[in-house]
Write a structure and sequence with these properties.
Blueprint lengths: L3 H8 L6 E6 L21 H7 L16 E10 L7 E9 L20 E6 L1 H4 L2 H20 L12 E9 L11 E9 L1 E5 L4 E3 L9 E3 L4 E4 L5 E4 L3 H20 L2 E3 L7 E7 L2 E10 L5 E3 L11 H4 L22 H11 L14 H4 L8 H15 L23
Antiparallel strand pairs: 1-2, 1-5, 2-3, 3-4, 4-6, 5-6, 7-13, 8-9, 10-11, 12-15, 13-14
């Protein structure tokens, strides 16, 4: 049964409602360590975050033309059983400045939208956890955006910044009878997640394989039409290649992905209403992204050295159901064939290897050498001749909506 408090919170996020957002230019770094701290006015961290996100100053006043006005079109994911509310929104009025984020698009009569990810403490039921989630997600996107690693040509969605919604529900006991809710804005992507394109086999001993649905998947488009998402064998390998290359590129820029799962990778067929020549992989998960200030090496790590068998366990079957379990050496062989055999002259390589980084924390010899031996033996026998080949960069350098 939904409590009255949660019911009132969710009522704000139904289609047809408006949201007026104020800028949140300095969201805090991930802050789980602050749970035991108190504020200067004596409030606990839970009491503070029940009213507002960490680092937000409600006393700052903004002019009307600095605010962002959105109209909620629908819900992508949310309701009483979800914590974050992911909403599809039309931009009624964009602010005159973007505070360093990507400019927020106003599509006019075009039926295109942006996505608002609302992190409401009431929906979480734990204000400190909601604040931690907000800080984790914004830290990753802020870092990637500053590194020019969001939007078209990257594996990350376009980022339109962090914002705050003023609300009055569940605020009777709060100073000023108001509370403030963190909102993350990103571009809207049309397609389907890898999980939505597959079934997952049951496996009592581990993670079951993904099996791709036999027929193309139809999804309603924002403009009222229909998108046919066809995960052909070639498309699946294009997406896998883009995902691997994108993850190691992100990590070279200081944003490490600690977990990869099928619901978090979207196969995108349309952006801004324009159909893409090549479907694109976009990584939506930022909760499990760790931001690091130091970079190692002058190139990303080779995907073979980044993705051990366990690192891709939740995506097993997507690229080929025959490349799982005892046949994972086939995935290793494909990575070597796709991304380079690691024996090319250094100046011709896109990637570094573990030997070049000399990482003492990783196994550079035993397990890695065994994988290399098996993969190269398979290549030598001609086992990879029938594998799909994908070319980097797979994503065009110029978006289709720019002509």
């Amino acid at each position: 049964m939904v409590s009255a408090k949660l019911h009132d919170a969710l009522a704000k996020y139904t289609a047809g409602n408006n949201m007026i957002l104020r800028p949140f230019p300095n969201p805090s770094a991930p802050n789980s360590h602050k749970r035991n701290e108190t504020t200067p006015d004596g409030r606990s961290f839970e009491e503070l975050t029940a009213q507002q996100p960490t680092n937000f100053d409600p006393t700052i006043q903004y002019e009307d033309d600095q605010l962002l006005k959105l109209n909620i079109v629908g819900t992508i994911s949310g309701g009483a059983k979800e914590d974050r509310q992911i909403l599809l929104c039309k931009v009624d009025e964009a602010p005159r400045t973007n505070l360093g984020y990507s400019p927020i698009p106003v599509f006019g009569n075009k039926k295109q939208c942006i996505v608002a990810i609302v992190v409401d403490a009431v929906c979480y039921g734990d204000s400190a956890m909601a604040d931690w989630h907000l800080s984790r997600r914004t830290a990753a996107l802020e870092h990637l955006h500053r590194s020019t690693a969001t939007g078209f040509g990257t594996i990350n969605p376009e980022y339109y910044g962090a914002w705050v919604l003023e609300a009055y529900d569940s605020a009777a006991n709060l100073p000023g009878y108001k509370r403030y809710i963190g909102v993350i804005l990103r571009e809207h992507l049309e397609g389907e997640s890898i999980r939505g394109l597959c079934e997952r086999e049951e496996d009592d001993e581990g993670v079951g394989r993904l099996t791709v649905r036999p027929n193309p998947v139809l999804r309603a488009a924002t403009d009222g039409g229909v998108i046919m998402v066809d995960p052909s064998y070639q498309v699946r390998h294009e997406i896998t290649m883009q995902l691997m290359h994108g993850v190691v590129t992100n990590e070279h820029r200081g944003a490490r992905q600690t977990m990869l799962d099928a619901p978090d990778v979207m196969v995108v067929f349309r952006r801004r209403g324009e159909r893409l020549e090549t479907p694109q992989a976009v990584l939506l998960a930022t909760l499990h992204t760790e931001v690091r200030s130091t970079r190692r090496g002058d190139k990303p790590l080779h995907p073979f050295d980044r993705f051990t068998h366990n690192d891709f366990e939740f995506l097993d079957g997507w690229y080929d159901v025959d490349w799982c379990y005892e046949n994972r050496f086939k995935l290793d062989a494909w990575m070597l064939r796709q991304f380079g055999l690691m024996d090319e002259p250094k100046e011709q390589r896109r990637y570094l290897t573990w030997e070049e980084l000399r990482d003492v924390e990783r196994d550079v010899k035993g397990g890695r050498n065994s994988r290399l031996i098996n993969a190269f033996a398979f290549i030598a026998k001609g086992g990879t001749r029938g594998f799909p080949h994908c070319s980097l960069p797979a994503i065009p350098s110029r978006p289709p909506w720019e002509g």
